[in-house]
Amino acid sequence: MGSAGAAGEVMSREEADRVLERLDAEHEAVESSLLALQDHAGRRLLEGAQLAGTTAHRWSRAEAAITSLWNGFDVYSRTLRQARELRARRRWPSRDDLVELTRLLRGTLTVPGGALPGTPGASLTEAPRLAEELTLTQLVERMNEWYAQALDVVAAADSVWSALPARIDLLAAELGRVRSLAHSVGVRPGEHPAADDLERTTAELKALREEVVRDPLAFWTPTGGSGAPGGGRPDTTRYDSAARALEDVRREIDAVLAVRQDAETRLMKLRDLLTRADRTLAEARAARGEVLAKIAASEVPAVSGPPTVLQEQLATAAEYRRRAQWHRLSPLLESLEERAEEELERARAQLSAVTAPLAVRAELRGRLDAYKAKVAQNGLAEDRLLIERYDAARRMLWSAPCNLRAAEDAVLRYQWAAQEALQQRQQDARDAAGGAMNMGAE
């Protein structure tokens, strides 16, 4: 919509023609805007809806603005038609014609319902005026205000209705699919938190859709700084929250479905883990008896019994699978898998702790034999001291029970003696080589 010129003296013929041309263009723009508003899908929906809250309040004002807009347009059209007919009488209008044209085009007109509550210059609590005196310029400005006020409500409501109900319906359809899956795996209200969340989300979506349909403007966030009618975006906060809640439930149901598909495999793996843990503990207990019999002066830790609690829980998990109670089986399997791995590691740690003295004895035996072989390679196999120290260490290491501390000391004494003997042999060899060189020189 455009704006008309300001009031002045009697217009000339040329000035009157220019004003009429501009007013014709403005009339066409106003008419196009009115027809577009009349055909706007949002306006038709608002007229047929049972509104409440913010939308009901703002739409009642917008309807009054639309009524005033049409009334103003009728006055505008009638006045412009009179001016056109007057101008068409003569090619060269008389002064009386120009005076009348000036009155029509720049004078005041009586417009019904000129000032509405909520329009610029009017109080929100002020009652609408029955009529108002306006020039064509002022009438165009006032029609711009009415149009913007009505279009702002219509466009905002249409945007919310176009965005939210369809998305809510799609989410509700997905919710129905998830509910069906939940029921198939035994996830039911009162028995599983996910089912309770599903019920809450269902109620929230139903309430949200009803509120959006009755009061769309309650879900509209205007764009800051924008003066254009309908500037803003739908507020999807509650919808997004419901979508996230449904996604959490869907993941939980998927996890339960996955449990149903591979429950037997996971149960078999759990049985294997616990069996290996039992065998490892049995091996540790047998090894402990061997260590106590073969190693003296050594602290051997006690070995715990088999994990009976885990075996009982495994039996419970098998019962849940037999009864298809997947929602109960899922968390129990996760807990059992973690604890079974820990139990196997604990059993292995106990076996390592129990057999540590045997490992020390084996290492000492290996070290003793390695030095004996090295001594023999260097021609010291008949060295009496080395033979005595080797025999002493060997008797300790191959006796039962074996005193590891004394055996380790004996091995160290043999090792030191062997190192000294080897160093002496190397020194003798160097001395012999040096004497031979001196004789050759003489």
Would you mind describing this structure in some detail?
- This protein is mostly helical and 442 residues long.
- It has 4 domains: 13-156; 161-221 and 232-261; 268-355, no CATH class; 360-441.
- The protein has 11 helices and 6 strands.
- The protein has helices at 13-39, 41-48, 53-88, 95-106, 136-184, 193-214, 237-294, 308-322, 326-377, 384-397, 404-441; strands at 108-112, 131-135, 220-222, 232-234, 295-296, 402-403.
- A two-stranded antiparallel sheet has the order 1-2. Strands 3-4 form a two-stranded antiparallel sheet.
- The termini are far apart.
- The model is unreliable at 1-7 and 117-126 (pLDDT under 50).
- Residues 13-40, 246-287 form a coiled coil.
Which descriptors would you attach to this protein?
single chain, 442 residues, mainly alpha, 4 domains, two-stranded antiparallel ribbon, 11 helices, 75% helix, elongated, disordered N terminus
Count of spatially separate domains = 4
Tell the overall outline.
Answer: elongated
Order of the strands making up the biggest sheet = 1-2
Classify the oligomer: single chain
Integer average pLDDT:
82
Question: What is the percentage of strand-forming residues?
Answer: under 5%
- Termini separation: 130 Å
| N-to-C order of helices and strands | HHHHEEHHEEHEHHHEH
Query: In angstroms, what is the radius of gyration?
Result: 50 Å
Query: Based on helices, strands and strand pairing, what is the structural class?
Result: mainly alpha
Major β-sheet profile:
2 strands, antiparallel
Total strands: the figure is 6
Helix content: over 70%
Sequence stretches where pLDDT stays below 50 over 5 or more residues: 1-7, 117-126
Number of helices: 11
